[in-house]
Amino acid sequence: MPKNKFTILVLVVMMICVPLVCESEDNHDAMINKWIEEFQPCALSKEEQQAELRWFYEISKPFRGKSIKSTAEDIKTHFYERDVLSKAFEEITGIHVEHVIIPEGDIVRSITEQMMTGRVIFDAYVNDSDLKGTHLRLNKIVIFSDYMKGEGNPYTDPYLDLNDYLNLEFGQDYDGNQLQIADQQFANLYWFRYDWFNDKKAKAEFKATYGYELGVPVNWAAYEDIAEFFTGREMTNPNGTVVKAYGHMDYAKPSPSLGWRFTDAWLALAGAGDKGLPNGLPVDEWGIRVENKIPVGSTVERGGDLDGPASVYALTKYLEWLKFAPPEAKNWEWSDSGVIPARGDIAQMIFQYITWLSDDEFHRLGSPVVGKNGKPVWRVAPSPHGRYWEEGMKVGYQDAGSWTIPSNIRGDRRTMAWLWIQFCISKTVAVKKFIVGGTPTRKSTVFHPYFTENSADYGGLIEFYRSPEEKKWTDSGSNVPHYPALSGLWWVNIASAIKGEKTPQEAMTNLARQQDEVMSKLKLAKFSPVLNPVKSREEWLNKEGAPKPEMPEETPKTVPYDELLKQWR
């Protein structure tokens, strides 16, 4: 080809291609800016968001056109990830994510099967950090703290800022290794009708009946009095409906969620276990004693506390208080019960997972629990604790659905899973994700000016997450050696007490012995259980700490809600 013709051809190609490249880059910038607008408000400036999303765009170039598969449980936050975040991630990175929403029990079964058999089912899981004791001992997951220093370092978002996390410890083992990273978290708090508690007639009659002020219960004795007082009492809602109130709300259907009702720190609220944060040591809220990271027993005879006086008291009060709840409670699971208080006839609920408070019925104008000004007439506050509880113990439970990558996910699939995880927990999306699902993980989220301006819409939730008290609400700890193997024992034994087949003591003793039996058979990669020899209950109950001996009844105590807020602030 003659030189001049070749030169002309090159120039023509450059004239054609350069505008196409520029147009492509311009289009991509426009697309990133579109998503920046979607993710408002944000803790980052728009320039910082653009830098973070541009990083995702550049780092993912080798993986465009490839696919991964992840899974999470069926709550609002994860539907948002499936319907919005996966679309944004694919447009920005070119990586397709199938984010499958399934029930929590199916997630536990699936990740357990993948770890035990090696069969690849999902590339990444949002599974509760309650399984970290299992992950620690099976040694079948990617340890994020190691991964970020080594293989995953080039693919770790420079804007990730894990120091911004509210509770990074939720995914850590005894030594601070990061086994999991929270995608969302929600506390289990006390919920109550602020308007009813401030009703002058109700306040006067409560004081006349019980001799102390109606307010937020500090302990279970006060909670029980309030439950009795409101049950059957005629109350009026802001929308004008008049109802016969129930002083308590719960669920009791024999099902796996009945087990969660107890493993989600109900025994800790009663005061079972030892002092320590995030979990009691050596005895935790599952009643499991651990020595040198090795579980040694659940029964009192082996130094555990699952069938001790505090745990039996916890089950006894749960059963007694069902008489203050709607009769249908015996047919409800956790997924049924969460939105029931929004119907307007529940005065208080000791065990409310705050993820349900994102439901529109808790905020809709005209709802029985929303005032004429459009603001909720309910509030959340710290959970009251039982008579065995001591300062220095955890107060309540936080569910932390946490990202986990099985170790059999390798190479590009592991890298893509890590990129998807970081996108879902990024500062770019965190504030908007909280607004949608009500499950915050970052300090920069809960302290964002948006929530200062709109805190009245959240019924005390923002104040809770901004307070130092939040650290006392934690997940299940590393003492639980195999969550899937042990958790199924709980609901069956609790159900036997609900049905009247066993007394609370018999049910908890049976549960503790079964838990020890299962633990004795576990052969795990690290820190397998080795049970203590059996000693007399009296010998263990006379030692300091858990298991604790029988304690006397407590004096009921309440605190004004507005005074509580001042303490938090």
User: Radius of gyration over alpha carbons?
Assistant: 26 Å
pLDDT averaged residue by residue: 93
Looking at CATH, the homologous superfamily of the domain at 3-185 and 401-456 is Periplasmic binding protein-like II
Helix content: 40-55%
- What is the count of β-strands? 14
By CATH, the topology of the domain at 3-185 and 401-456 is: D-Maltodextrin-Binding Protein, domain 2
The main β sheet shows up as:
8 strands, mixed
Query: Structural class from helices and strands?
Result: alpha+beta
Distance between the termini: 80 Å
CATH-level-2 architecture of the domain at 3-185 and 401-456 = 3-Layer(aba) Sandwich
Form type = globular
CATH class of the domain at 3-185 and 401-456 equals Alpha Beta
User: Unreliable stretches, pLDDT < 50, 5 or more residues?
Assistant: 1-23
H/I helix tally:
22
Question: What does this molecule look like?
Answer:
- The chain is globular, with a radius of gyration of 26 Å.
- Among the domains are: 3-185 and 401-456, Periplasmic binding protein-like II (D-Maltodextrin-Binding Protein, domain 2, 3-Layer(aba) Sandwich); 187-252 and 321-390, no CATH class.
- The protein is 42% helix and 12% strand.
- The relative contact order is 0.17.
- It is built from 22 helices and 14 strands.
- The strands form 4 sheets. Strands 1, 2, 3, 4, 10, 11, 12 and 13 form an 8-stranded mixed sheet that branches. Strands 5-14 form a two-stranded antiparallel ribbon.
- The model is unreliable at 1-23 (pLDDT under 50).
- The protein has 569 residues and is an alpha+beta fold.
- The longest helix has 36 residues, at 3-38.
- Helix 3 links the parallel strand 1 (67-72) and strand 2.
